[in-house]
Amino acid sequence: MPKYVGAIDQGTTSSRFILFDHDGQIVYVDQREHEQITPRAGWVEHDAKEIWTRTREVVNGALASSPAEAGDVEAIGITNQRETTVVWDRETGEPIYNAIVWQDTRTAPLVRELAGDQGVDRLRANVGLPLSTYFSGPKVRWLLDNVDGASEKAEAGQLAFGNMDTWVLWNLTGGTDGGVHATDVTNASRTMLMDLETLDWHEPSLDLMGVPRSMLPEIRSSSEVYGEAKGTAVGGRPVGGILGDQQAAMFGQSCFDAGDAKNTYGTGSFLLVNTGEQVVHTDKLLTTAGYKLGGGKTTYALEGSIAVTGALIQWLRDRLKIIGSAPEVEDLARSVDDNGGVYFVPAFSGLFAPYWRSDARGAIVGLSRFNTNAHLARATLEAICYQSRDVADAMTLDSGVGVRVLKVDGGITANELCMQMQADILGVTVSKPVVAETTALGAAYAAGLAVGFWRNTDELRANWNEDKRWEPAWTEEQREAGYAGWKKAVERTFGWVDVD
What we know:
Layout: E1 4-10, E2 14-20, E3 26-33, E4 45-46, H1 48-64, E5 73-80, E6 85-89, E7 99-100, H2 108-115, H3 124-127, H4 136-146, H5 150-155, E8 159-163, H6 164-172, E9 182-184, H7 185-188, H8 203-209, E10 218-220, E11 223-228, E12 238-244, H9 245-252, E13 261-265, E14 269-276, E15 286-292, E16 298-306, H10 310-320, H11 328-334, E17 343-345, E18 363-365, H12 373-399, E19 405-410, H13 416-426, E20 429-433, H14 438-451, H15 457-463, E21 466-470, H16 476-492
Parallel strand pairs: 1-5, 5-12, 9-10, 13-19, 19-20
Antiparallel strand pairs: 1-2, 2-3, 4-7, 6-8, 11-12, 13-14, 14-16, 15-16, 17-18, 20-21
């Protein structure tokens, strides 16, 4: 029988299990969605128990629909929505509250309190991140402050914290029956609690946020055997890889050299550039761990996180109802030659990189009676691309690490007009791989390397094949004129709400 590596891809809206062969091709897959819980404006939650149930179902479903048996799965990798925070009771395995999702902004008052007179960058030199509602640390503090008895239980060592990788790993390896409480460097680097240089929990950050060290998982590499799976169709197989979703996509795109860059277009977009073994600090982008293979040195990355890209097309469909399905936006946008002077800045809950403006709100500017829904559709696609340029320019300016070729993945890459716009607006080649599921593939690669299914990254690089590329067609004058209009539009969104 052929041998495979499996990847659990626990995402923001669904969980999947994918089996890959040695060539990095998808062989079998199962996927299940989970509920999005929004109890108040700005609050986004998931039921962590439901997510584990769906994870178990997709693992069992993929094996049931294929001729593969557990023994044919050499290893299992995990990739996950990052920053989404769950705290649970070690003895019962019960979460103390719903998981607080990365998009959630309830911790804004707490973040301002933590920033104090020293500002949001008070921890950045060590953890690589500004104080923000985005990251896990303030979410943990909110749970300890707002769930009855949680703080006392945490101090007594009764509670465990993890991002979704840790929650899945703990349950997959036995839960209350010996489950492994660990994370990898990439996920730990998104908590705002890990020192990037030492790869250990940063005591001043723990003290600032009042997070007991006893709650925290062990920080390990991204590629090693953490334990054996239990209680699913892959019981007895080694769990050998963990990567946060965006680092997993970078790994799956074979971005192994300094300067290699990828952009993943999902609900939001995440542009990462490999900076090698160097920790590069900037004041506009996130410095993060890219991956660490076993006992090797850590590879770092700069990241530009964009809150709203794919969600913007969903908004046109579900809220404005100017399209009936996401693919229709391309035909509508193609029906006009340009944006007609319209710019759409989707700062629905503020702007992430490189602005970090929580006081911004969405704006459609430049409207005249001439404009139609087609111009808005085109401005929507351009907004996705201009936000990526904002990030790419900040990377080059602050670090000197320029994007040479942008490797892309995610659902929006099926929109050829959008990808051509991305090449035009950036002025660089945009390249899409044959295997688009690079997030799951990256986790599979990490797990396969841990057990020798793949020997080294050269073997992984050889698996990468290009499906399509887009070359810039705009003149430099077109590019700069368009971008100048975008920058003016962005400025109009600032200061729209009082963050105090």
